[in-house]
What does this fold into?
Amino acid sequence: MSLQILVLTVLDGIAYGSLVFLVAVGLTLVFGVMRILNVAHGSFYALGAYAAASLGLVLSAWGISAWFAYPLFIVAAVAVGVSVGGLMERFILRRIYVREEYLQLLVTFAIFMILDNVQRLVWGVQPYFYTEPLSLMGNVTIVGIPYTAYQIIFLPLVALFILFGLRWFLRKTLAGSLIVAVTEDREAATAIGINARKVFFLTFIIGTTLASLGGALDSPTTSVLPGMGADMIVLSFAVAATAGLGQIGGAAIAALLIGLGRSSAVFFMPELEVVVPYLIMVIVLLFRPEGLFGKTTARKI
It folds into this structure.
């Protein structure tokens, strides 16, 4: 194995792991606070990608510089997270918080299917391409290997910003402290006057916005087409389960582990590319059913 192949494997794994983390961290945050496995999380990733690609194509049609696409990615992610995520939490999830877990799973799966068909109705089945932000940043050369700066520098920096920004938000702000209080003990937090419904609403919007942001940032690197949400939600579940549901820091390490595992398979055993992330998850869960960083907790009866 040459040094160049090894470096390329690591760089590709970092880039892919950063992207997966951006989506999976929203999923694990929602589960950690609300105890809901949101299958529709993948739809927000797809909606963010479609919204970002559409806005980017409008910029190109109007002759506006692609540099404006970067703030538009954030606008698209927030718009999708607040509007679609807010409506979903307010009018659907709020009605099933106290219901059985299997019912919550079925409801979010139904929403995923509905949103998937909405994407086909609005954007059709033809793929969308908007790669100008990717080419705008150019390439960097590492050990003689040219690599896109967007994937190897920009995406990892955004992932680190989200990781440390989220940890700062949860530890240093009042809203974050309320979220942590509800996460630790919902009944006790409610008893001292914390409005758990508002906390759930805020948490869900943050989670769906992060998923949409992941889709928006991924749109320049891939073709945006129907079904992309299904692939990402399965991968996000693998990351969240490997880390331990609700573990934000652990999700970053698990995403990096899965990213490196996938890139290794791409270069050395391409036929296992799709399987490797789930093999890692299965191996981890066999030895640590609560995940790498999860904690075993007593169930309340």
Remarks:
- The longest strand covers residues 139-142.
- The longest helix spans residues 3-34.
- The radius of gyration is 19 Å.
